[in-house]
C-alpha cells in the first residue's frame, strides 16, 4: 500500500491549503473524511460477507460430517440389533418361548404382558404436597422470618404499616 508518513501528510496539507484555499479547506476536508468513512464501511461490509460465506462453508462441511457419522452409528446399531434379534430367536430361526428366554409369565393372568407391569401415571409423577411442607414449619420461625401466614390486601397492608399520627 501507499506509505504515508507525517512528512508526506504535512506536504499534502500544505499543497491543499495553497490550491484549495483556506475558506474551502474545512468543507473539502469534511467531504474527504466522509468519503473515506464510507469506503471503510464498505470494505468492512465486504470482509464481513466473505467471513460469513467462509463460516457457512465450514458449517456445511461440519453438518455433512456429522450426518455421515450419524448414519454410521445408525447402521452399526441396526446391525447390532439384528445380531441380538437373531440370537434371541435362536440359531436356526425358531422363536424361543417366554420360559426359554427366562421371562416370567405369571403376570399374564392379571392382564400384564410378560410379567412387566406398566406404572400408573400417578406413580410416575408424585404430587408434592406443598401445604404439608408449609404446615410443618413452626409458627415462631415464620414470625421471625416474616413469612406471611394469612392473606392481606394491599390497602390493609399499607394501613397496617402507615406511621401513626400523633395529636391529629
From TrEMBL:
Membrane topology: Single-pass membrane protein
GO MF entry, a single one: protein transmembrane transporter activity
Keyword Nucleotide-binding carried by entry: no
Region span, Disordered: 67-102, 115-168
GO CC entries: TAT protein transport complex
Top-level taxon: Bacteria
Comp. bias regions, Basic residues: 125-134, 159-168
Keywords carried by this UniProt record: Cell inner membrane, Cell membrane, Membrane, Protein transport, Translocation, Transmembrane, Transmembrane helix, Transport
Pfam families the record matches: TatA_B_E
Cell inner membrane found in the keyword field: yes
Gene Ontology annotations of biological process type: protein transport by the Tat complex
Compartments (UniProt record): Cell membrane; Membrane
Stated role: Part of the twin-arginine translocation (Tat) system that transports large folded proteins containing a characteristic twin-arginine motif in their signal peptide across membranes. Together with TatC, TatB is part of a receptor directly interacting with Tat signal peptides. TatB may form an oligomeric binding site that transiently accommodates folded Tat precursor proteins before their translocation.
Subunit-structure text: The Tat system comprises two distinct complexes: a TatABC complex, containing multiple copies of TatA, TatB and TatC subunits, and a separate TatA complex, containing only TatA subunits. Substrates initially bind to the TatABC complex, which probably triggers association of the separate TatA complex to form the active translocon.
Family statement: Belongs to the TatB family.
Protein name: Sec-independent protein translocase protein TatB
Taxonomic classification: Bacteria, Pseudomonadati, Pseudomonadota, Betaproteobacteria, Burkholderiales
Amino acid at each position: 500500500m501507499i506509505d504515508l508518513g507525517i512528512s508526506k501528510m504535512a506536504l499534502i496539507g500544505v499543497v491543499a491549503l495553497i490550491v484549495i484555499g483556506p475558506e474551502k479547506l474545512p468543507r473539502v476536508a469534511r467531504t474527504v473524511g466522509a468519503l473515506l468513512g464510507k469506503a471503510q464501511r464498505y470494505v468492512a461490509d465486504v470482509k464481513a460477507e466473505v467471513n460469513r460465506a467462509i463460516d457457512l462453508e465450514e458449517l456445511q462441511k461440519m453438518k455433512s460430517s456429522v450426518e455421515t457419522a450419524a448414519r454410521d452409528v445408525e447402521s452399526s446399531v441396526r446391525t447390532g440389533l439384528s445380531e441380538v434379534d437373531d440370537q434371541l430367536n435362536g440359531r436356526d430361526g425358531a422363536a424361543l418361548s417366554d420360559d426359554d428366554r427366562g421371562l416370567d409369565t405369571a403376570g399374564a393372568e392379571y392382564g400384564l404382558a410378560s410379567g412387566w407391569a406398566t406404572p400408573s401415571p400417578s406413580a410416575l409423577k408424585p404430587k408434592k404436597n406443598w401445604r404439608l411442607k408449609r404446615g410443618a414449619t413452626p409458627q415462631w420461625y415464620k414470625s421471625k422470618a416474616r413469612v406471611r401466614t394469612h392473606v392481606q390486601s394491599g390497602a390493609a397492608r399499607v394501613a397496617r404499616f402507615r406511621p401513626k399520627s400523633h395529636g391529629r
